[in-house]
Amino acid sequence: MVRTLLVRGMLVGVLAAILSFAFLKLAGEPAVEQAIAFETRQEEAQAATAREEATRKGQPAPLEAVKSEPVSRSTQSGIGLLTGVVAYNVAFGGLFALAFSLAYGRIGPYGARATAVLLALSAFIAVCLVPSLKYPAGPPSVGEAETIGIRTGLFFAMMVLSLAAMMGAWMLRKRLAARFGEWNAGLAAAGGYLVVVAAVSIVLPGVNEVPEGFPATVLWQFRIASLGANAIMWAILGIGFGAWAERALVASGYARAVRLA
Amino acid sequence: MVTAAYAQAAAEPVAIPVREAMPWVVFAGLLLLMALYFIGAEEGAASLINGTYVHEFLHDGRHLLGFPCH
Predict the structure, then answer these.
(1) Which residues contact A211 (CB under 8 A, 6 or more apart)?
(2) Residue A192's CB: how many other CB atoms inside 10 A?
(3) Distance (Å, whole) CA B28 – CA B24
(4) In terms of CA atoms, which chain B residue is nearest residue A1?
(5) Is the CB of A255 inside 8 Å of chain B's CB atoms?
Protein backbone atom coordinates (compact mmCIF):
# COMPACT_ATOMS: atom_id res chain seq x y z
CA MET A 1 0.00 0.00 0.00
CA VAL A 2 2.71 2.48 0.96
CA ARG A 3 4.53 1.72 -2.30
CA THR A 4 1.41 2.65 -4.30
CA LEU A 5 0.90 5.83 -2.29
CA LEU A 6 4.56 6.83 -2.70
CA VAL A 7 4.46 6.35 -6.48
CA ARG A 8 1.21 8.29 -6.75
CA GLY A 9 2.52 11.10 -4.56
CA MET A 10 5.59 11.51 -6.77
CA LEU A 11 3.51 11.39 -9.96
CA VAL A 12 1.13 14.06 -8.64
CA GLY A 13 4.33 15.97 -7.89
CA VAL A 14 5.21 15.87 -11.60
CA LEU A 15 1.82 17.42 -12.44
CA ALA A 16 2.33 20.07 -9.76
CA ALA A 17 5.80 20.77 -11.19
CA ILE A 18 4.45 21.45 -14.68
CA LEU A 19 1.91 23.98 -13.38
CA SER A 20 4.39 25.49 -10.95
CA PHE A 21 7.02 25.85 -13.68
CA ALA A 22 4.55 27.57 -16.03
CA PHE A 23 3.58 29.94 -13.22
CA LEU A 24 7.21 30.75 -12.35
CA LYS A 25 8.03 31.39 -16.02
CA LEU A 26 5.19 33.91 -16.26
CA ALA A 27 5.25 35.48 -12.80
CA GLY A 28 8.75 34.85 -11.41
CA GLU A 29 11.30 35.13 -14.22
CA PRO A 30 10.55 38.80 -15.05
CA ALA A 31 11.46 39.71 -11.46
CA VAL A 32 14.65 37.60 -11.64
CA GLU A 33 15.69 39.39 -14.85
CA GLN A 34 15.03 42.81 -13.30
CA ALA A 35 17.00 41.84 -10.20
CA ILE A 36 19.96 40.72 -12.34
CA ALA A 37 19.74 43.98 -14.31
CA PHE A 38 19.92 45.87 -11.00
CA GLU A 39 22.94 43.80 -9.95
CA THR A 40 24.70 44.54 -13.27
CA ARG A 41 24.02 48.29 -12.93
CA GLN A 42 25.45 48.25 -9.39
CA GLU A 43 28.60 46.44 -10.52
CA GLU A 44 29.10 48.80 -13.47
CA ALA A 45 28.67 51.84 -11.24
CA GLN A 46 31.27 50.45 -8.81
CA ALA A 47 33.71 49.73 -11.64
CA ALA A 48 33.24 53.27 -13.01
CA THR A 49 33.94 54.78 -9.58
CA ALA A 50 37.11 52.71 -9.24
CA ARG A 51 38.31 53.81 -12.71
CA GLU A 52 37.67 57.50 -11.94
CA GLU A 53 39.53 57.28 -8.67
CA ALA A 54 42.49 55.60 -10.35
CA THR A 55 42.61 58.33 -13.04
CA ARG A 56 42.47 61.05 -10.40
CA LYS A 57 45.42 59.52 -8.56
CA GLY A 58 47.27 59.04 -11.81
CA GLN A 59 47.33 55.25 -11.45
CA PRO A 60 46.61 52.81 -14.24
CA ALA A 61 42.95 51.80 -14.50
CA PRO A 62 42.10 48.71 -12.45
CA LEU A 63 41.63 45.49 -14.38
CA GLU A 64 38.04 44.66 -15.13
CA ALA A 65 37.03 41.58 -13.23
CA VAL A 66 36.22 38.93 -15.79
CA LYS A 67 32.98 37.27 -14.73
CA SER A 68 32.99 33.59 -15.49
CA GLU A 69 29.58 32.24 -16.31
CA PRO A 70 29.67 28.46 -16.38
CA VAL A 71 25.92 28.36 -17.12
CA SER A 72 24.15 30.76 -19.47
CA ARG A 73 21.09 32.75 -18.41
CA SER A 74 18.87 30.88 -20.88
CA THR A 75 19.95 27.54 -19.35
CA GLN A 76 19.37 28.85 -15.84
CA SER A 77 15.87 30.11 -16.61
CA GLY A 78 14.99 27.13 -18.84
CA ILE A 79 16.21 23.59 -18.22
CA GLY A 80 17.87 24.59 -14.94
CA LEU A 81 14.67 26.02 -13.50
CA LEU A 82 12.65 23.08 -14.83
CA THR A 83 15.05 20.56 -13.21
CA GLY A 84 14.90 22.35 -9.88
CA VAL A 85 11.12 22.69 -9.91
CA VAL A 86 10.51 19.05 -10.95
CA ALA A 87 12.92 17.65 -8.35
CA TYR A 88 11.46 19.91 -5.65
CA ASN A 89 7.85 18.99 -6.45
CA VAL A 90 8.54 15.25 -6.84
CA ALA A 91 10.50 15.18 -3.56
CA PHE A 92 7.73 16.95 -1.67
CA GLY A 93 5.12 14.75 -3.41
CA GLY A 94 6.92 11.67 -2.13
CA LEU A 95 7.44 13.03 1.38
CA PHE A 96 3.81 14.11 1.45
CA ALA A 97 2.66 10.59 0.46
CA LEU A 98 4.82 9.10 3.25
CA ALA A 99 3.40 11.52 5.81
CA PHE A 100 -0.08 10.73 4.52
CA SER A 101 0.47 6.98 4.93
CA LEU A 102 1.08 7.58 8.65
CA ALA A 103 -1.56 10.28 9.15
CA TYR A 104 -4.43 8.52 7.39
CA GLY A 105 -6.79 6.97 9.94
CA ARG A 106 -4.77 8.46 12.80
CA ILE A 107 -5.37 12.23 12.77
CA GLY A 108 -9.14 11.79 12.96
CA PRO A 109 -12.09 10.10 11.32
CA TYR A 110 -11.38 11.65 7.92
CA GLY A 111 -11.46 9.95 4.53
CA ALA A 112 -8.51 10.00 2.16
CA ARG A 113 -9.46 13.22 0.39
CA ALA A 114 -10.11 15.18 3.57
CA THR A 115 -6.91 13.82 5.18
CA ALA A 116 -4.86 14.81 2.12
CA VAL A 117 -6.27 18.34 1.98
CA LEU A 118 -5.82 18.93 5.72
CA LEU A 119 -2.29 17.54 5.58
CA ALA A 120 -1.32 19.61 2.53
CA LEU A 121 -2.72 22.78 4.08
CA SER A 122 -0.82 22.10 7.30
CA ALA A 123 2.37 21.39 5.36
CA PHE A 124 2.02 24.58 3.30
CA ILE A 125 1.61 26.64 6.46
CA ALA A 126 4.36 24.86 8.41
CA VAL A 127 7.01 24.30 5.73
CA CYS A 128 6.46 27.25 3.39
CA LEU A 129 4.26 30.10 4.63
CA VAL A 130 5.54 30.53 8.18
CA PRO A 131 9.28 30.12 7.38
CA SER A 132 9.00 32.52 4.43
CA LEU A 133 7.17 35.13 6.53
CA LYS A 134 10.24 35.19 8.79
CA TYR A 135 12.87 34.63 6.09
CA PRO A 136 11.28 35.62 2.77
CA ALA A 137 12.71 34.46 -0.56
CA GLY A 138 15.35 36.77 -2.00
CA PRO A 139 15.99 37.52 -5.68
CA PRO A 140 19.54 37.76 -7.09
CA SER A 141 21.54 40.66 -5.52
CA VAL A 142 19.50 40.46 -2.30
CA GLY A 143 21.55 38.66 0.35
CA GLU A 144 25.29 38.79 0.97
CA ALA A 145 27.54 35.92 -0.03
CA GLU A 146 29.33 35.84 3.34
CA THR A 147 26.12 35.17 5.26
CA ILE A 148 24.80 32.29 3.11
CA GLY A 149 25.69 29.71 5.78
CA ILE A 150 23.95 31.46 8.66
CA ARG A 151 20.94 32.39 6.48
CA THR A 152 20.49 28.81 5.29
CA GLY A 153 20.84 27.55 8.86
CA LEU A 154 18.24 29.99 10.18
CA PHE A 155 15.85 29.21 7.32
CA PHE A 156 16.00 25.46 7.93
CA ALA A 157 15.82 25.93 11.71
CA MET A 158 12.64 27.96 11.27
CA MET A 159 11.25 25.26 8.96
CA VAL A 160 12.07 22.36 11.30
CA LEU A 161 10.70 24.13 14.41
CA SER A 162 7.55 25.17 12.58
CA LEU A 163 7.02 21.61 11.31
CA ALA A 164 7.59 20.17 14.80
CA ALA A 165 5.09 22.66 16.23
CA MET A 166 2.56 21.67 13.56
CA MET A 167 2.95 17.97 14.33
CA GLY A 168 2.63 18.74 18.02
CA ALA A 169 -0.53 20.72 17.33
CA TRP A 170 -2.15 17.76 15.53
CA MET A 171 -1.27 15.43 18.44
CA LEU A 172 -2.61 17.95 20.93
CA ARG A 173 -5.82 18.26 18.94
CA LYS A 174 -6.34 14.51 19.06
CA ARG A 175 -5.87 14.39 22.83
CA LEU A 176 -8.22 17.31 23.44
CA ALA A 177 -10.90 16.17 20.97
CA ALA A 178 -12.48 13.59 23.30
CA ARG A 179 -12.96 16.09 26.09
CA PHE A 180 -13.67 19.38 24.31
CA GLY A 181 -15.05 18.28 20.95
CA GLU A 182 -13.42 18.28 17.51
CA TRP A 183 -13.95 21.98 16.76
CA ASN A 184 -12.73 23.39 20.08
CA ALA A 185 -9.76 21.01 20.09
CA GLY A 186 -8.85 22.22 16.59
CA LEU A 187 -9.02 25.86 17.66
CA ALA A 188 -6.88 25.21 20.74
CA ALA A 189 -4.26 23.32 18.69
CA ALA A 190 -4.15 26.04 16.01
CA GLY A 191 -3.74 28.68 18.71
CA GLY A 192 -0.93 26.66 20.29
CA TYR A 193 0.86 26.39 16.94
CA LEU A 194 0.60 30.16 16.37
CA VAL A 195 1.96 30.98 19.82
CA VAL A 196 4.95 28.65 19.32
CA VAL A 197 5.91 29.91 15.83
CA ALA A 198 5.38 33.54 16.86
CA ALA A 199 7.72 33.02 19.83
CA VAL A 200 10.30 31.27 17.62
CA SER A 201 10.25 34.05 15.02
CA ILE A 202 10.63 36.72 17.68
CA VAL A 203 13.62 34.91 19.23
CA LEU A 204 15.46 34.05 15.99
CA PRO A 205 17.50 36.95 14.53
CA GLY A 206 16.13 38.84 11.54
CA VAL A 207 17.89 39.09 8.19
CA ASN A 208 17.79 42.33 6.23
CA GLU A 209 20.22 42.33 3.34
CA VAL A 210 18.23 44.16 0.70
CA PRO A 211 20.73 46.52 -0.98
CA GLU A 212 19.98 50.23 -0.99
CA GLY A 213 17.96 51.33 -3.97
CA PHE A 214 16.66 47.85 -4.84
CA PRO A 215 13.20 48.35 -6.42
CA ALA A 216 10.51 47.42 -3.88
CA THR A 217 8.06 46.36 -6.60
CA VAL A 218 10.55 43.81 -7.98
CA LEU A 219 11.08 42.41 -4.47
CA TRP A 220 7.33 42.11 -3.91
CA GLN A 221 6.71 40.49 -7.30
CA PHE A 222 9.53 38.02 -6.71
CA ARG A 223 8.32 37.01 -3.25
CA ILE A 224 4.70 36.66 -4.34
CA ALA A 225 5.80 34.46 -7.27
CA SER A 226 7.85 32.29 -4.93
CA LEU A 227 4.96 31.90 -2.50
CA GLY A 228 2.54 31.27 -5.38
CA ALA A 229 4.65 28.45 -6.81
CA ASN A 230 4.68 26.73 -3.42
CA ALA A 231 0.93 27.29 -2.97
CA ILE A 232 0.30 25.68 -6.37
CA MET A 233 2.39 22.67 -5.37
CA TRP A 234 0.62 22.07 -2.05
CA ALA A 235 -2.83 22.64 -3.58
CA ILE A 236 -2.22 20.11 -6.36
CA LEU A 237 -0.69 17.61 -3.93
CA GLY A 238 -3.58 17.96 -1.47
CA ILE A 239 -6.40 17.76 -3.98
CA GLY A 240 -4.88 15.49 -6.64
CA PHE A 241 -3.19 12.98 -4.36
CA GLY A 242 -6.26 12.68 -2.10
CA ALA A 243 -8.56 11.69 -4.94
CA TRP A 244 -6.05 9.22 -6.38
CA ALA A 245 -5.08 7.70 -3.02
CA GLU A 246 -8.71 7.18 -2.08
CA ARG A 247 -9.24 4.73 -4.93
CA ALA A 248 -6.24 2.64 -3.92
CA LEU A 249 -7.19 2.69 -0.22
CA VAL A 250 -10.83 1.73 -0.81
CA ALA A 251 -9.84 -1.03 -3.25
CA SER A 252 -7.35 -2.51 -0.76
CA GLY A 253 -9.71 -2.48 2.21
CA TYR A 254 -8.21 0.50 4.03
CA ALA A 255 -11.66 2.05 4.26
CA ARG A 256 -14.21 0.24 6.38
CA ALA A 257 -17.75 0.79 5.13
CA VAL A 258 -19.99 2.11 7.85
CA ARG A 259 -23.47 0.64 7.71
CA LEU A 260 -26.08 3.31 7.46
CA ALA A 261 -29.14 2.47 9.48
CA MET B 1 -24.93 2.99 -7.58
CA VAL B 2 -26.57 5.26 -5.05
CA THR B 3 -25.93 2.76 -2.26
CA ALA B 4 -22.30 2.39 -3.29
CA ALA B 5 -21.82 6.16 -3.27
CA TYR B 6 -23.31 6.42 0.21
CA ALA B 7 -21.26 3.52 1.48
CA GLN B 8 -18.10 5.20 0.22
CA ALA B 9 -19.06 8.55 1.68
CA ALA B 10 -19.56 6.92 5.04
CA ALA B 11 -16.38 4.85 4.84
CA GLU B 12 -14.26 4.91 7.95
CA PRO B 13 -10.50 5.17 7.46
CA VAL B 14 -8.37 2.18 8.45
CA ALA B 15 -4.83 3.22 9.38
CA ILE B 16 -1.91 1.56 7.59
CA PRO B 17 0.13 -0.42 10.16
CA VAL B 18 3.30 1.40 11.22
CA ARG B 19 5.30 -1.83 10.65
CA GLU B 20 4.33 -1.71 6.99
CA ALA B 21 4.94 2.01 6.54
CA MET B 22 8.25 2.41 8.41
CA PRO B 23 10.75 0.94 5.91
CA TRP B 24 9.30 3.17 3.19
CA VAL B 25 9.13 6.23 5.39
CA VAL B 26 12.74 5.89 6.55
CA PHE B 27 14.44 4.85 3.31
CA ALA B 28 12.44 6.85 0.74
CA GLY B 29 12.22 9.74 3.18
CA LEU B 30 16.01 9.96 3.43
CA LEU B 31 16.46 9.80 -0.35
CA LEU B 32 13.86 12.54 -0.91
CA LEU B 33 15.41 14.77 1.76
CA MET B 34 18.77 14.34 0.03
CA ALA B 35 17.16 15.45 -3.24
CA LEU B 36 15.89 18.58 -1.47
CA TYR B 37 19.39 19.21 -0.11
CA PHE B 38 20.85 19.11 -3.62
CA ILE B 39 18.25 21.54 -4.95
CA GLY B 40 18.40 23.85 -1.98
CA ALA B 41 21.85 23.97 -0.44
CA GLU B 42 24.58 22.11 -2.40
CA GLU B 43 27.41 24.44 -3.45
CA GLY B 44 25.72 27.16 -1.47
CA ALA B 45 25.73 26.81 2.27
CA ALA B 46 27.44 23.41 2.06
CA SER B 47 29.37 21.69 -0.68
CA LEU B 48 29.92 18.01 -1.43
CA ILE B 49 30.98 18.55 -5.05
CA ASN B 50 33.78 20.94 -6.06
CA GLY B 51 32.93 23.91 -8.25
CA THR B 52 29.87 26.02 -8.80
CA TYR B 53 28.14 24.20 -11.64
CA VAL B 54 25.31 22.68 -9.55
CA HIS B 55 24.73 26.07 -7.91
CA GLU B 56 24.67 27.96 -11.22
CA PHE B 57 22.54 25.38 -13.01
CA LEU B 58 19.87 25.37 -10.30
CA HIS B 59 20.28 29.12 -9.70
CA ASP B 60 16.81 30.34 -10.73
CA GLY B 61 14.94 27.45 -9.13
CA ARG B 62 16.84 27.91 -5.89
CA HIS B 63 15.94 31.60 -5.75
CA LEU B 64 12.33 31.21 -6.85
CA LEU B 65 11.53 28.22 -4.64
CA GLY B 66 12.54 30.29 -1.63
CA PHE B 67 15.93 28.87 -0.58
CA PRO B 68 18.58 31.32 0.61
CA CYS B 69 21.03 31.81 -2.27
CA HIS B 70 24.35 33.68 -2.83
Answers:
(1) A42, A141, A142
(2) 16
(3) 5
(4) B16
(5) yes
State the ipTM, two decimals: 0.84
Q: Is residue B8 part of a domain?
A: no
pLDDT of residue A258: 66
Q: What is the pLDDT of residues A108-126, one digit of tens each?
A: 889 999 999 999 999 999 9
Residues of B in contact with A222 (CB under 8 A): 63-64
Does residue B9 lie within any of the structural domains? no
Q: Residues 199-228, chain A: which have Cβ within 8 Å of B?
A: 222, 225-227
Distance CA A90, CA B51 (A): 26
Give me the domain span that covers residue B55.
Answer: 17-65
Residues of A in contact with B52 (CB under 8 A): 70
B45, part of any domain: yes
CB contact (8 A) between residue A2 and residue B24: yes
Per-residue pLDDT band for A146 (boundaries 50, 70, 90) equals confident
Q: Length of chain A, please?
A: 261
Domain count, chain B: 1
Chain A residues touching B7 at Cβ < 8 A: 257-258, 260
**pTM for the full model?**
0.89
The rounded distance, in Å, linking the Cα atoms of A92 and A94 is 5
A98 and B10 within 8 Å at the Cβ level: the answer is no
Q: Are the beta carbons of A23 and A228 closer than 8 angstroms?
A: yes
